Amino acid sequence: MTLLTETPRVRFTASDFAPQPAEARGLERDGVRLLVGTPDGLDHVRFRDLPDHLRAGDVLVVNTSATVAGEIDATLDREAIVLHVATRLDDGDAVVELRSAPDAARAVLDAAAGAVARVGDVRLVLRVPWPAGVASSPTGRGNRLWRASVSGDLDRQLDWNGRPIAYGYLDRRYPLEAYQTVFGIRPGSAEMASAGRPFTPSLVTRLVASGVQFAPVTLHTGVSSQEAGEAPGPEWFEVPAASASLINLVRSSGGRVIAVGTTATRAIESAVVEESVVAASGWTSRVVTPGDPPRVVDGLITGWHDPQASHLLLVEALAGRALTQAAYDAAVAEGYLWHEFGDSALLLRRQ
């Protein structure tokens, strides 16, 4: 696993995790809380109030990747495990994470190259740590992600028996539909591009009517459960020519480019050439940090990230340390909910 050369400087203690989707808490999707943070201060509203905090001429960059069933029960040397299928590679191999049964509560770190995981009639042989060339996990306790060769129809097994990747803070399992966004039309993400979840068709309509434009991109997410010190692995992305042209036009006209999520930010920033966005696709290893900040994105709609998450470095790189710290301090103090079914933030580095 690639190590980050930077660590988040923002300091806080994570607040409450959202144990269930907004709908299970009696809310509409756009009824979750929204903290709006700008250099001028903070505001606490609801996500449905987003049009009041954007302006005509802004563009929202949205991720069209849909969530797939990436978690399935398996065995490793006849011991029960939970398998997370993080990424399918172009040559048919898979990037997988081994986690403890029955609830994927912790990573299994004592596997070795050559070990065989079985899912029904499918065999996955662990080949090398992922990404290639890394000898061990930054945890110092073994490898967490593996490149595995696949014998058999893994996609069929996932279709039959798979479920959305979930972790122990949820009160129960939720169906795959709960992990989809209104923008998700291209299946491929192991975990939901969750910043887009609070959008509803009616909210999108209101934004369009107010003059806000949308630029679709795709980035298929891997697993987000990085241990301390890990950078995001390579992920497949695409920025269409029409979206690149729209973003460049908005920037030249003085509008703001606001990414819906760290995934959309990574996609756009992977397609920048000499300060302009170009059509691009493929595997990106771009990691946005304060030392390598975003070049075209002016704002970010995002959920709330754990203190050691690499996503927090991206937030800090875009919003700046002071605004990020102020936003997280306020979110903790006001009891905002964390993780994929939680509350949101809109952070703008320029007005």
Task: Walk me through this protein's architecture.
By secondary structure, the protein is an alpha+beta fold. The protein has two domains: 22-67 and 173-348, QueA-like, CATH 3.40.1780.10; 71-161, no CATH class. The chain is built from six helices and 19 strands. The protein has helices at residues 154-161, 201-209, 241-252, 262-269, 310-319, 321-333, and strands at residues 33-38, 41-46, 59-63, 65-67, 71-76, 79-88, 94-100, 116-119, 122-129, 145-151, 186-189, 213-220, 235-239, 257-260, 272-273, 276-277, 280-284, 299-302, 344-348. The strands form four sheets. It has a nine-stranded mixed β-sheet with strand order 2-1-19-18-14-3-12-13-17. A hairpin with a 2-residue loop joins β8 (116-119) and β9. The two termini are 38 Å apart. Mean pLDDT is 91; it is low at 135-140.
Write the layout of secondary structure elements.
Elements: E1 33-38, E2 41-46, E3 59-63, E4 65-67, E5 71-76, E6 79-88, E7 94-100, E8 116-119, E9 122-129, E10 145-151, H1 154-161, E11 186-189, H2 201-209, E12 213-220, E13 235-239, H3 241-252, E14 257-260, H4 262-269, E15 272-273, E16 276-277, E17 280-284, E18 299-302, H5 310-319, H6 321-333, E19 344-348
Parallel strand pairs: 1-19, 3-12, 3-14, 4-11, 14-18
Antiparallel strand pairs: 1-2, 5-6, 5-8, 6-7, 7-10, 8-9, 9-10, 12-13, 13-17, 15-16, 18-19
